[in-house]
Amino acid sequence: MPSLGEDLSDLRKKENLTLKNIFDSTRIPIYILKAIEDSSIFKDPKRNRTYVRSFVRTYAKALKISESDILKALDQTYDQKYDGLIAQNYRLSKPDSENIDEDTSGASQEYQPKFSLETPSESSKEEENTEPPDETTDQEEKNELYKANTIKTSTGSDKEYTQPDSSKPHNQKMPDPPNVHNINWAAMNNKISDLKTRTPVTIIAAIIVIILAAAAFFIYTRYETPGGPQNGSGKLQSVLPMDTLNNVKSVTGDTAKAETGGDTTAMTLPDTLHLVVYAAYKKLEPVRVKSDLGNHLNPYWVEKGQAMRFRFLNNIYIRGQYSRMMLLFHGHPIPNFQQYKGNDGTIHLQRSLFESHKDWWKPSDGGPLPNGVPWPSAIHDTPIY
């Protein structure tokens, strides 16, 4: 049964080429060429067909087989229907195996180029001229050889070469190495002066960056209470900034009695409300909070025992590990806050909830929190994104 590999081998031998010659022109390893010629490469299931087809097409191109013929032969081979297409189209006959040296060790006959790189020997030309040289002509040649602006070739040809063009950069003389005499001290002094001028600008820029970083840190931590939320009297410090507390009408003292006649129901909430999310039982990693003062449900990481304050106007949304947290409003824990959970699992608190619980409006007296949980050691303001 004819095989594609055998036909390729026969065509190679017909062209008087060895495997070494094919390797030199295609760079296909010789063991691959052997696998192609014995057709084992087509039967190996581990061989990727894409690579096999590429090797065979390259091999066929070296043998001057048309692209359409080799592709058709490959398809027939993989379909096990190869009918000797290459042998038929390229008129193959079994070559005399003794005429081709199949040594693949590299010691096979070397591929000879179609032209020689060696120049003809000049001695043959000299042998043709058997007459003794004329002394006058010889002296003229010597004078011409040592002419100031002309270099005559040693072969005795009439071609002459002028001296290199000194205007070209590669023909110019290399400058002398620097020393104390050829250094341009004036130019160096100008460089040092420019460096001194730029140095204060760099220092000023660095100082400005440090000041801005310090200001950002101060703004970020301006409401943090490093010593804990409780003052020396053991009472909880308010979870609202002082400017917000000033907007809330006091519910104690003579002022409240004078304004409301002893009735605290006339007290109103400020426009901006504050809710504290307290990592009471374990670290919140993370809790996601969104209010009507922001556009995204941003994540926040709160360490155990610490809390974070969030501002809102009418609505605030909270999603996270509810069993780890406690929600505080003016220091009052919001009981059973998970009852305000929506269908998506997000807790939604509205202003109406806080308006209906007027007992939350007064700052906490610092009493114990539920389940014996201690008060937050620090309350942080919401980071600015």
Instruction: Summarize the amount of helix as a percent range.
Output: 25-40%
Q: Report strand order across the widest sheet.
A: 9-8-3-6-11
Query: What multimeric state do the chains show?
Result: single chain
Gyration radius over CA: 48 Å
Description:
The longest helix has 36 residues. The chain contains 13 helices and eleven strands. About 27% of the residues have low confidence. It is 35% helix and 13% strand. A five-stranded mixed beta sheet has the order 9-8-3-6-11, with no helix packed on it. A four-stranded antiparallel beta sheet has the order 5-4-7-10. A two-stranded antiparallel ribbon has the order 1-2.
Summarize the structure in short.
By secondary structure, this protein is α+β, with helices and mostly antiparallel strands.
Question: What structural keywords apply?
Answer:
single chain, 385 residues, alpha+beta, 3 domains, 4-stranded antiparallel sheet, 13% strand
What is the topological layout?
Layout: H1 4-14, H2 19-26, H3 30-37, H4 40-43, H5 49-62, H6 67-78, H7 85-89, H8 122-128, H9 135-145, E1 150-152, E2 160-162, H10 185-220, H11 242-245, H12 253-260, E3 273-278, E4 284-291, E5 298-302, E6 306-312, E7 315-319, E8 326-329, E9 332-333, E10 347-350, H13 351-356, E11 378-381
Parallel strand pairs: 6-11
Antiparallel strand pairs: 1-2, 3-6, 3-8, 4-5, 4-7, 7-10, 8-9
Helix pairs in contact: 5-6
